[in-house]
Amino acid sequence: MALPLQRNLRGGPGQLGLVRWAMHRSLDSLSGRVCIVGVMNPSEAQQRIGELRAEVSRHDELYYRRARPEITDFDYDQLKSTLAEWERRFPEVARALGAATPTARVGDDRSEGFVRVKHRLAMMTLDNTYDEGELREFYARLGKALGGEEMAFTVEPKIDGVAVSLTFEQGSLTRAVTRGDGEEGDDVTANVRTIRGLVTQLVGERVPAVIEIRGEIFLREEEFRRINQLQEEAGEAAYANPRNLAAGTLKQLDARLVASRGLEIVVYGLGVCEPAVVSTQTAYHAQLKAWGLPVVERLWSVRGIEAVWAAVQELDRVRRGFVYGTDGAVVKLDSFEQQRHPKIGFRGMGADGRAEVARKLSPRWACAFKFPPDRAETRVRAITIQVGRTGALTPVAELEPVVLAGTTVKRATLHNADEIARKDVRIGDAVLVEKAGEIIPVVVAVLLGQRPVGSAPFVFPQYCPVCQTAASRGAGEVVWRCLNVRCPEKIRRGIEHFASKGGVDIEGLGEEMVALLLAQGLIRTAADIFRLQMADLLPLKKSGEVWAGNLIAAIAARREADLWRVINGLGIPQVGAASAKELARTFRSLDTLAAATTVDLLRVEGFGEKMAAGVVTWFADEANADLQRGLRAAGLNPTPPPAGSGALAGKTFVITGTLPTLSREEAVAKIEAAGGKASGSVSKKTHYLLAGAEAGSKLAKAISLGVPVIDETEFRRLLQVGP
Hints:
By secondary structure, the chain is an alpha+beta fold.
């Protein structure tokens, strides 16, 4: 019996939620049809279970090892629950196919190139549900197992990040290991040590001899966007969400590349602890914070199922204000003694107290309530191609407007030609749109049952839609590009970037004005901006001399823009603001930077081989060399950062918390103007921590390392008289 594909709106069909619905019907992910499990005979069931096992295993490989999933976490959970239901309905068939089923093992993130290390206590994976009724059943089971004992629970965010286990011995961080297969993971200590906000020495009292602290590594939204832009400019596939980018970053073999990306961490879980120092999850959370470690913003300590459910609902309301993505709530029995009760403990534990080989180990005392994703159904009106400043051709779905997560969505990224083909997105299709990682609207599925008659597959254009130059795709790249250096759209976007706040920051020269100047033939490159005269501008606007005079003055003020702004404005692949500042400090002029070799660039902090090669290649291009010469001829004279002079010369500052009168950007500008350097993480090389209200874990780390902590008043004194 065929049924139409269920619309994946929040809450699913009725009050059961989509996962429980999926346990009654099997979703065929290839055809978009739904079949009733009970009408299958054993032969058909054997085929279907085999297909589902292969499909789940394929998605495990994409998610855990490659950090390149093709479906959302929600759809993966639905698929895996469907397989579990088939295996439950046909146990003899499942046993005949062998015990190697992905429903009974954790995903394996181990990779080549890393040393493998066994966890002292296996890293567990949580059972999860999307249904309130199942959460209440979880509570009732624990109450029955404990014979009516009073129970307290904690509710905390389920962070959409990369799980890691940190081992501290005598208070010092000695090892960081990924989840791996639960029993054994990859040693990523060198990479984890680059994470900002992570102390490597526990501070305060009650530090155990040995402790495994579990947490999640994540990326903030702004860092995710920055790195994805660099990925696309380099012709590489963009990451679907911050979690996948964090996972891919953590498995880089070059720690300098890892350090150039803003990985962060929060901790919450406990492995081995010798000797024990706390007896409840609530006390453990407080102790982690006292040791100087970053913890979750909110943790609810509650009693009773109604209070548990109220906390879960409150978390759902406030979670979008957190700095990391969340996809659910983790509910834990608070008492460690009750967690160890003989009738509770862990699923998948052998008689010897070790996890059974290749088996899923999960605590009976914890449960993850996952929030259904914010999804909406709409229709694709058109598929357009955007041309980026590097020539990258990016397809975008133009949608019938739909409200999603409180905002109206009219467009959704389709990433690249391969992604369109894989999902078979067509003009006129009804589609489900979701905010990937709660950030970027993306088409997650096509509703095939509603596809218009006569629709045709989308043919990715072989020419730039603006200049009609033949598009090209390099070997191993997923991005098609316009290679025409005179493409009007590439020129426009390049000039916009050069004049933007991240570039030389010319006030009044935004997108609209750049387009107008280009249309009038007054500029052709960024260098022409500095040749503009009052007479050129007067005819363009009715406001006349006032407006024209203001723009000319703004341009003149940027003739001596900071060197790092000019470098960043040039749009060199892989070079953002932080990298541009390092280049400016090292080479001190555009000419010197242009003459730098790969060996020279590898000496720059944070630069790996790929970034160094990208800079050399950019300056070797004749069009870019012409632009550099044009800027010089037009009177651009970039200002290098102070070298060996200034009140703060040679000093490195880290800023944390909210300052009374200065924004973070203003404080950084003052530090750099005085010859100092602003860093994002505290280390032994940090000279001062500038701390304001609500200072975070950086304060504890600075204290543990003996780094001087100053307030804004002392900072202003240092700017005047120096250290």
